[in-house]
Design a protein that fits this description.
Layout: H1 9-17, H2 28-37, H3 40-48, E1 54-55, H4 56-63, H5 67-79, E2 83-87, E3 92-96, H6 99-109, H7 117-130, H8 133-139, E4 148-151, H9 169-174, E5 179-182, H10 185-192, E6 205-208, H11 209-217, E7 222-224, H12 226-239, E8 242-246, E9 254-258, H13 264-272, E10 283-287, H14 297-301, E11 307-311, E12 322-326, H15 335-339, E13 345-349, H16 360-370, H17 375-378, H18 385-398, H19 401-408, H20 410-424
Helix pairs in contact: 1-2, 1-3, 2-7, 6-10, 7-10
C-alpha cells in the first residue's frame, strides 16, 4: 500500500494502538509483540484506520482505497482478532482491536499446529507483567473504569440481600439466546508457558449475543446452547471459580470463569494492588464471628488474597481463636463463602456504592477520559493533520486536573455522557 513514508511502520502502529481506551505504552517487548502479530501490510493498514468503529465505505473514503481491495484485508485481520467486525443490524462496522478485551484474548484463543503460540504467550506475559508500563499506564493513577467486573455467586448472598439482574450470571444467561464456548486465553497462555496443568478445563470462555456471533463467525469459538451455559455456570460454582463479565449494566457480551492460578486479571490485582483492574461487585464478603472457626479455607479460596485468618488479640490460650478477616479489596465474588463449611461468610451489600457503566459506549468513554484518549473519538482520522492538531489541543485541555475531575465526578458525569450519546447517535 505504501502510503506511510516512515520506515518504522511498527512504531506508527504502536502509537495507533496506544490511543485505545486500554493503553499500550511502547516498549522493546511491545515492539517484538506487534512484529509477531502483524505483517507489514497489516500494520500499515491498521495504523491508518479510524479510531471509531466505521463502515467499509467510510474507511475506503478516508483511506482513498477501493472497497474491493480493503474488504479481504479487513476480513483477514478479523480472522486473526486484530480487527473486530460488529454487525449493527444493517452492515458491518470495523474497529481496531484493543489489547484487552481484544487481540490478547483472540490471539490466545486460536489453536492450530503451525501457530507460534509459545512465543505469543511469552511476549504477552513479558509485556503485561515483566515490564510495569502496561499496568501502570492503565491503573497506576487510580483509574476505576475497567473492561470487566466481578459477578457474585448467587448462592453466597446473605439472607435478604438483593442484587440487580445485571449482577446475576443466571439472569445474563436467560436474557440471551445465542452463546459460544472457546479456549480461555489466560489458561491457554499458561499452558504454553509450561505452567502446571490447571484443574479447570481449557474451554471455559463463554460469550453471548453479538460477542458470541463475532467469535463464532471468525473461528475463535463454537456455538453452544443455553443448557450448556447453565451447566458451565454450575461447574464454575462447584469448582469455586471467580465469575466476571463486561463492566456494563446492559448487553453484557461474555462471562469469564476465572481461576486464581491462571487469570491475568486476578494476578494483576494480587501483585499490584490496583483494585480497578477488576471492578468489584456491589456486595462484599462479611464474616460472622459467632460461626467462624478460623479454619482458613476461605483464605485459600480467595483469588486476590483479600481474606486472611487472624488471631483475636488479647488471648492467653495456647490455641487462641482465629477469625476470618476481609480486606478492602474484596471483589465480592463469593468464592470464599462457597468454601466456608459453617456458613460464617456471606455476601452483604457493600457500604460504598460501586458504579458500573450503563453500556459499552459509556464504559469506553469513561475509560478514554481516565486514560487521556477521549479526544481520539471526536477527531478520529489518523491521516488528518488538522485533526491531529485538534486531538492535541483537546487532549491537553482534558488532562487539566479540574476538568478531568469534573467530567468524571458524579455531578457532571451523567449529563456529559448523555450529551455524548445524543451527539453520536
Amino acid at each position: 500500500m505504501g502510503h506511510i513514508a516512515s520506515k518504522d511502520i511498527y512504531r506508527k502502529l504502536g502509537h495507533r494502538l496506544d490511543q485505545a481506551p486500554v493503553r499500550t505504552p511502547w516498549t522493546a517487548v511491545f515492539r517484538q509483540l506487534v512484529e509477531e502479530l502483524y505483517s507489514r501490510p497489516e500494520a500499515e493498514l491498521v495504523a491508518r484506520l479510524p479510531y471509531r468503529p466505521s463502515t467499509l465505505k467510510r474507511i475506503a473514503a478516508m483511506l482513498g482505497e477501493s472497497e474491493h481491495v480493503l474488504r479481504p484485508m479487513l476480513e483477514g485481520l478479523c480472522a486473526k482478532g486484530l480487527v473486530i467486525d460488529i454487525w449493527d443490524g444493517a452492515q458491518y462496522q470495523y474497529m481496531v482491536s484493543p489489547i484487552v478485551i481484544g487481540f490478547f484474548e483472540f490471539t490466545m484463543m486460536r489453536a492450530g499446529p503451525n501457530l507460534p503460540q509459545a512465543r505469543w504467550a511469552e511476549l504477552f506475559q513479558a509485556y503485561m507483567f515483566g515490564e510495569k508500563d502496561f499496568l501502570h499506564a492503565n491503573f497506576g493513577d487510580g483509574q476505576r473504569t475497567s473492561v470487566m467486573r466481578a459477578l457474585p455467586h448467587e448462592e453466597a448472598l446473605g439472607e435478604h440481600v438483593e442484587i440487580l439482574g445485571y449482577e446475576k450470571a443466571s439472569v445474563l444467561i436467560e436474557e440471551n439466546t445465542e452463546f459460544s464456548l472457546g479456549l480461555c486465553s489466560c489458561r491457554h497462555e499458561k499452558h504454553h508457558l509450561g505452567h502446571e496443568p490447571c484443574r479447570t478445563p481449557m474451554d471455559t470462555c463463554t460469550s453471548m449475543g453479538t460477542g458470541a456471533r463475532f467469535l463464532i463467525r471468525n473461528g475463535f469459538a463454537k456455538p453452544i446452547d443455553k443448557a450448556q451455559m447453565r451447566d458451565i455456570l454450575a461447574r464454575s460454582r462447584d469448582q469455586g471459580l471467580t465469575l466476571s463479565a463486561d463492566n456494563v449494566r446492559r448487553d453484557a457480551g461474555f462471562i469469564c470463569h476465572c481461576c486464581g492460578c491462571c487469570c491475568n486479571l486476578l494476578r494483576g490485582v494480587r501483585e499490584t494492588g490496583y483494585t480497578g483492574i477488576l471492578v468489584t461487585a456491589s456486595v462484599v464478603a462479611v464474616a460472622d464471628e459467632a460461626l467462624c472457626t478460623g479454619c482458613g479455607l476461605c483464605a485459600k479460596a480467595c483469588p486476590v488474597n483479600a481474606v486472611s485468618v487472624e488471631k483475636i488479640p488479647g488471648q492467653e490460650d495456647r490455641k487462641p481463636k482465629k477469625l476470618a478477616d476481609i480486606k478492602e479489596h474484596c471483589l465480592g465474588c463469593g468464592v470464599c463463602a462457597l468454601k466456608c463449611p459453617t456458613g460464617a461468610i456471606t455476601l452483604k451489600t457493600r457500604p460504598q456504592k460501586v458504579y458500573h457503566p450503563e453500556d459499552s459506549f459509556e464504559r469506553v468513554m469513561l475509560q478514554a477520559l481516565e486514560r487521556d484518549t477521549f479526544q481520539t473519538f471526536i477527531f478520529d482520522n489518523p491521516q488528518s493533520r488538522t485533526q491531529e492538531f485538534m486531538r492535541a489541543l483537546v487532549g491537553g485541555f482534558l488532562k487539566l486536573p479540574p476538568v478531568k475531575r469534573a467530567l468524571l465526578g458524579e455531578k457532571l458525569r451523567s449529563r456529559f455522557l448523555s450529551a455524548l450519546r445524543k451527539a453520536a447517535g
